[in-house]
Model the fold of this input.
Amino acid sequence: MTLFFNREFVSEPQTRNREQNLRFCSRVVAKRCSDMEEIMKILFIEWKSFGNQDIKEAFAAEGHTVAYFPFSNKDSRQDVELEAELVSSLHKETPDIVFSFNYFPVISKVCKKEAVRYISWIYDSPYVMLYSYTVINPCNTIYVFDKELYLEFHNAGIQTVHYMPLAANTQRLDQIHPESADTLNSRSNSSLPYLYDVSFIGSLYNEEHNFFDRMTTLSDYTKGYLDAIMSAQMKVQGYNFIQESLAPIIDDLYQALPMDPNPDGVESKEYLYAQYVINRKITGLERADLIHAIAEHFHFDLFTPNVNFALSNLTNHGIVDYYEQAPLVFKQSKINLNISLRSIKSGIPLRAFDILGSGGFLLSNFQTDYLDDFVPGEDFDYYESREDLIAKIDYYLTHDEERAAIAKNGHDKVARKHTFRHRVREMLR
Done:
């Protein structure tokens, strides 16, 4: 798949970027390069994001100090007042690093001006701000959790984007458990209660913000074309071809639902419609279809914002607090299902890491990044089709000891290699 940076963006500016990077490193970072143990001061861009508390604890556990900058105007590419406030905070706190979950061009703009290193760790997908021209600013170190996405930027000559998987705070998760449970050391412990056979936490993407269903003026040709490519995509795991298939119908999509690229960005219309409209619709259809299929054979427990979704043999619990309540669901489910958003190309979503980190058994759709560190059938398992999913659910519900051993292996591997402390060490090296 081709990345949509134009020639101006990836050639001359990128050449200048290399030169700036060298100067920047010598001016700001060089003093750290010889001392991997140096204590850092971090200015944390604080907004309501998953993982806030976990990475704060990780920074502290590694001996770093953290100051905070409240941030709410996340969608703005330019904000004079916010920029002035951030400059003032930088002068007051004098941090070594500015850190945020997800990437914000307005933050990068200020960090470039003030010669402060800006580290961002993106956990959302899709994430259109990653396609801002500011991504090449020499102050940036941007981590994405999707290796295929990283390779797109790397192959386009973008040197500020790197690959780093997400993580779980196993220390915190190990302390969350049902009151009746005596220990979390092993899922084979018969005293640990299971409340759910098969569960899923996540959106069904059929709420009011569903963009796809707003396109009511599409031509019959476009409707048929979309039906065909969406049906085909639902049969394919591990590769997404929606974006590259939209050129013949992009004008009709735009007429039905205008979406324009950002003025400081290099994203295409095809990117916007593929990632924010069609892939979300596919994910919604896929999740609903799989839940229907599972509920025909097993009781299913669903935790989702859409409280109106109802089936026989299904209990819809509504939305669940992700930080405190979701780990209990993961721990008390025999099988925790992950159905990745189709915009995620190859990466492991946060939900999967938290299932593993909680000691839950993970059954997921196939994502190639799993194979870098996790072994199917030993640490987790994946399904390749609806039929394969039903067969594996049936198998693992009747093989308790094997399922418990796999869950424990997955938990222990995350604890050894994939905690927030591991990621902090990597990003601050």
Remarks:
- The CA atoms of residues 167 and 418 lie 5 Å apart.
- The first strand starts at residue 41 and ends at 46.
- The chain has 16 helices and twelve strands.
